[in-house]
Design a protein that fits this description.
The structure is a single chain. The two termini are 35 Å apart. The chain is built from 12 helices and 8 strands. The longest helix has 17 residues, at 156-172. The radius of gyration is 17 Å and the shape is globular. The chain has helices spanning 3-8, 46-52, 79-92, 105-116, 139-144, 146-150, 156-172, 178-185, 190-201, 235-239, 261-264, 266-278; strands at residues 9-14, 17-24, 29-33, 56-60, 98-103, 121-127, 222-229, 249-258. An 8-stranded mixed beta sheet has the order 1-2-4-3-5-6-7-8, with helices on both faces. The chain has a single domain (3-278), classed as Alpha/Beta hydrolase fold, catalytic domain (Rossmann fold), CATH 3.40.50.1820. The chain is an alpha/beta fold and 283 residues long.
Length: 283
């Protein structure tokens, strides 16, 4: 984490869970939600761009990640529980409505927030992960999602750490902040906390059918962004999300980036974010 983020982040107690939260800038709020195996440091290139453009940026370490608390129970990482963290955080910061940008699990959380708490979300930006109704979808996506099933096994922790995290590095080494991920997940209980996001929300049974009934369509203006170097997610699961957006929908593709486009292609992503969040009406 950069020095600037370290000094401006603070700890807030939300529903009994301690969350490390960055809150910078003044103006219309933008909530940034990271995924696995990340922390708010994922957004280090987006925060100055957004605050410099006149936005207030709120970026938490989600439960189990970064400097936030990591409850031991698997069910503590079910998306409804995490959504309570986010809504409680917005309430505590007196933010009635906000733009929301989510990546990976943060995108799944952002879709749920926009669908189930529509009065709280002005505009939605989903990075990498499409609407939950599109997952798992195709056989191609099921094949790419092998690790989600692997994470269900109690042996996953030992296997991922074996030989200096060899399997983890091979599976997730295409971009992002690999050394930081290993360092973060090497802390006691943190790898299990990260895997519990999958254990609480993904089951072998879910691969047999899409989760369309769980999350309604989204009515706010929505931007979906997918990167061509993503080894975990197909382009189709993002583009087909248009069927689950009743408001204005826009899709953008970034070719020269891995799954971690906020780190790999920050200038292009920042350009898209500012264009979408400041525009009168999304294209």
């Amino acid at each position: 984490m950069s020095a600037g983020h370290a000094t401006s982040a603070r700890r807030l107690e939300v529903g009994g869970v301690g969350l490390n939260v960055l809150d910078e800038g003044e103006g219309p709020p933008v909530l940034l939600l990271h995924g696995f195996p990340d922390s708010l440091d994922l957004w280090r290139h987006q925060v100055p761009a957004l605050t410099g453009a006149g936005f207030r940026v709120i970026a938490p370490d989600l439960r189990g990640f970064g400097r936030s608390d990591a409850p031991e129970e698997v069910e503590a990482y079910a998306l409804p529980a995490v959504m309570e963290d986010v809504v409680g955080l917005l309430d505590q910061l007196e933010v009635p409505t906000t733009h929301v940008v989510g990546h990976d699990w943060g995108a799944a959380l952002a879709w749920g927030l926009a669908a189930l708490q529509p009065d709280r979300v002005e505009r939605l930006v989903a990075l990498s992960v499409g609407h939950p109704a599109t997952f798992p979808g195709s056989m191609e996506q099921r094949a790419l999602s092998w690790y989600m099933l692997f994470f269900q096994f109690p042996e996953a922790e030992e296997a991922l750490q074996r030989d200096d995290w060899r399997l983890f590095r091979e599976a997730f080494g295409g971009g992002g902040d690999l050394d930081r991920y290993v360092e973060d997940l090497s802390r006691p209980g943190r790898l299990t906390a990260g895997l519990n996001w999958y254990r609480a929300n993904i089951s072998p049974e879910s691969f047999a059918s899409a989760m369309s009934s769980a999350v309604p369509a989204v009515s706010c203006p929505t931007l979906g962004v997918w990167s061509a170097g993503d080894v975990a997610l197909t382009e189709h699961q993002m583009t087909s999300s248009a069927e689950n957006v009743t408001g204005p929908w826009r899709y953008e593709r970034i070719d020269d980036a891995s799954h971690w486009m906020p780190v790999d292609a920050p200038e292009r992503l920042n350009e898209l974010l500012l264009d979408f969040l400041t525009g009168e009406e999304p294209r």
